Amino acid sequence: MLLVSANVNGVRAAERRGGISWLAASGADVVALQEVRASDDQLRAALSGTVFESWEVVHAPSDAKGRAGVAVLSRRPVKEVRTELGGPAGAEFAGQGRWVEADVLVGGAVVTVASAYVHTGEAGTPRQEEKQRFLAALGARVEAWSAEGRLAVLTGDLNIAHTQDDLKNWKGNRGKSGFLPAEQEHLDRWGAEHGLVDVHRRLHGPGPGPYTWWSWRGQAFDNDAGWRIDYQLATAPLAAAATSATVGRALTYAERWSDHAPVLVEYAV
């Protein structure tokens, strides 16, 4: 199963820039999208004329028009769908378009693929406190995956650089949202307590990089002054089946179709 995760930075804009064609040609079996920023009809229109027309499409749009939105596209059958995190911690985020998970049938196995979008915070503000609460809600969900022994993977834009290897200018970003110890502790805990594995980092080895996000401004992309904030975090049984991981970085600035690059992981399931 080739799983491709991508923050499209608006699916309609990505379609105009060639991003949907890129994803359709990637050979993916499952595609997880973040920041779709579209209605169901608009998402379907952006996917029209590609292989995705015949795929199962699971979409959790935001109630706020033009904001957030996550989706899972699958050429394999989808058995069950959950569009909210659930539980007391997750209730606050209902309708925000930040979480969707689909149980995908891969041969004789069921693989749970979740697409998550964690918004950017701002250190020392209520927005950062909300980000922390959302990360805690994600933690409760992956804890349940671990307890159930699922083959599962959390994909998406988590807006956290986990270590110094995940951020080019880490010294200049100390104390800023996206590189705060309180954020990084969530990723530490998910690994230590719930067995989630950063399969991209495990397969690639130490950094720095490869990065997955670069500002549109200045020379960030050309100088590879980026952040690695897009992940595939798999439960231990699924992580053991991961065989390759790459970042679909555009060759040139002009060929970019999002400020993020897709993360591609092959799983032998």
Mean pLDDT: 96
The proportion of strand residues reads 25-35%
The coarse silhouette is globular
Number of helices: 8
Q: SSE string, helix = H, strand = E?
A: EHHEHEEEHEEHEHEHEHEE
The biggest beta sheet is recorded as: 6 strands, mixed
Number of domain units: 1
Kindly report the CATH topology: Deoxyribonuclease I, Chain A
* Rounded radius of gyration (Å): 17 Å
GO biological process, one term: DNA repair
Protein name: Exodeoxyribonuclease-3
Organism: Phycicoccus duodecadis
GO molecular function: double-stranded DNA 3'-5' DNA exonuclease activity; metal ion binding
Description of the molecule:
This protein has 269 residues and is of the alpha+beta class. The protein has one domain (2-267): Deoxyribonuclease I, Chain A (4-Layer Sandwich), CATH 3.60.10.10. It contains eight helices and twelve strands. It has helices spanning 11-16, 19-24, 40-47, 87-91, 126-148, 181-194, 199-204, 236-239, and strands spanning 2-7, 30-34, 56-60, 70-74, 78-82, 99-106, 109-117, 151-157, 197-198, 230-234, 242-247, 263-267. A six-stranded mixed β-sheet has the order 3-4-2-1-12-11. A hairpin with a 2-residue loop joins β6 (99-106) and β7 (109-117). The longest helix is centred in the middle third of the chain and has 23 residues, at 126-148. The N and C termini lie close together (6 Å). The mean pLDDT is 96.
